[in-house]
Specification:
alpha+beta, 3-stranded antiparallel β-sheet, 16 helices, 11 strands
């Protein structure tokens, strides 16, 4: 809730919209850029903060927190947009605090449809589902239908939708949101549409910024296992993509609002649509893995996979030393539980991987120790690891991942500490020269060599990877 005191009242009362740019060195002015016409962006306007005891950033944080309390999406960007609507709609006949509170309290349930349309043409039959997203050919008719039905103020979306038909689009399942109901603003002659649009644009940007992270989360296991790779960085090049959004809601007047913005093209190396399903099937049938839950061992799997995912990001962006380091950190994070020594990490990783490497336990320990020696020399002496070291530690990390996923799916261990304790028992048995049965090894996830249906050798460094190059990455499962 917005605090009701004289300082906040004065700060809100000092807000105004200015059409002239701030003077040099003026710090109490925040820029907003409302869209005012179908031809493009209108003239920039400025939200001016008059001098008061409450600093602009503090006022923005107060509004953002008030939005959060009511259940709205909240960010500094959204808070500035709300203050912009407040500044043009408050008639100064009432308390500024009370008016802003009433503005925020008028909530409305809405759905947000999102499309990121790239420049890349794609076959109409192509469809790849990744979590709550779909990658497929853009079809504008569905958006047009909802925009027309809701009497959208900007039904043209400020772009020619037909020109984008057939291009690759990343579509998100409609989001259920709470938004401010601006139809309940008091009526007067002040033009407010540009500022209301600025609010919708801010909420839209908030959710657009989630896209890459959500996709990376949905692909966590696949990228951590080297099965797939999607670049997460934006490309600075002249080829632009277009973000399109449509808010639909039930209100007494208008029932939808459309927004769009240009964006730097997201690099997507689209695999064959059937490949993700093949990988899902392999994880399910080979390891019993369906999804990650909220058990302690699942949280450990997530942490381990995030470092593997980052390791692959570094490798595909031509940073092999950082990739090597992240693979090593992943092993330390998983197997060096509660400050276990480097020798414990070597022993644990070796007992999980020596059979798939077609070697014995002692030889595998020497191999792992050599890799850790290379890591120490890189960290402490700046000596670059040999090229073969990256491949070796990657293979070990992947083998450990398959064991971990197998154990997580079996339900044998609810947390990683119990799993590691059992690994230590197996390790002690191996070192004592006693026979370890296949059944015991299976309990810790070991099951000989495993061959996934795909392995991404290399994504070609910075830049988009065409879809047809994926055929060169397929690893035979025979």
């Amino acid at each position: 809730m917005i605090p009701d005191n004289s300082q906040i009242e004065a700060a809100l009362g000092g807000l105004s919209i200015e059409s002239s740019s701030p003077s040099e060195g003026q710090t109490h002015v925040m820029l907003i850029e409302p869209r005012t016409s179908k031809e493009g962006e209108g003239e920039p306007l400025f939200l001016s903060f008059a001098g008061s005891e409450v600093k602009p950033n503090s006022l923005i944080k107060i509004v953002a927190n008030a939005l959060q309390d009511v259940g709205y999406d909240h960010s500094d960007d959204i808070a500035i947009a709300v203050l912009g609507v407040f500044a043009v709609s408050w008639n100064r006949d009432s308390s500024a605090v009370e008016y802003l509170r009433s503005l925020i309290d008028n909530s409305l349930n809405a759905k947000l449809h999102q499309e990121l349309v790239l420049r890349t043409p794609i076959e109409d039959s192509y469809c790849l589902r990744i979590g709550e997203f779909e990658m497929k050919a853009f079809d504008p008719e569905k958006l047009r239908y909802w925009a027309k039905r809701g009497n959208s103020q900007i039904q043209s979306f400020l772009v020619d939708l037909d020109q984008m038909k057939g291009r690759l689009a990343i579509s998100r399942q409609p989001l259920n949101l709470n938004i401010i109901d601006f139809n309940k603003l008091p009526s007067d002659s002040t033009p407010r549409e540009p500022f209301i649009d600025n609010y919708f644009q801010a909420v839209f940007r908030f959710h657009c910024e989630e896209r890459v992270g959500k996709i990376k989360d949905a692909l966590l296991i696949y990228e951590a296992g080297g099965l797939l790779h999607f670049k997460s960085s934006l490309l600075v090049n002249p080829w632009k993509s277009t973000n399109i959004g449509l808010f639909t809601f039930k209100s007494s007047k208008q029932q939808s609002w459309s927004v769009c913005s240009k964006a730097l093209m997201v690099c997507v190396n689209t695999p064959p649509s059937e490949l993700l399903e093949e990988c899902k099937q392999w994880l399910r049938e080979e390891l019993g893995h369906e999804s990650l839950e909220k058990r302690p061992i699942d949280q450990t799997i997530r942490s381990y996979c995030r470092f593997l995912q980052r390791a692959y990001d570094h490798r595909h962006e031509d940073r092999p030393e950082e990739s090597f380091l992240h693979f090593a950190i992943a092993l330390d994070l998983l197997l060096g539980w509660k400050g276990s020594s480097a020798s414990s990490v070597s022993s644990r990783s070796s007992v999980l991987t020596y059979s798939s490497a077609n070697t014995d336990m002692e030889s595998q320990i020497k191999r792992v120790n050599k890799l850790y020696d290379a890591r120490s020399k890189y960290v402490h002496e700046g000596r670059i690891p040999e090229e073969t070291a990256l491949k070796e530690i990657e293979e070990i990390c992947l083998c450990v991942l398959w064991c971990l996923l197998k154990v997580g799916a079996s339900g044998e261990f609810q947390d990683v500490e119990n799993w590691l304790n059992y690994i230590d028992l197996v390790t002690a048995t191996e070192k004592a020269g006693e026979c370890v049965t296949a059944e015991v090894l299976s309990k810790i996830g070991v099951q000989g060599e495993r061959t996934p249906p795909n392995y991404v050798e290399y994504c070609g460094g910075p830049g988009a990877t065409p879809m047809d190059l994926w055929r060169y990455r397929r690893r035979s499962s025979g």
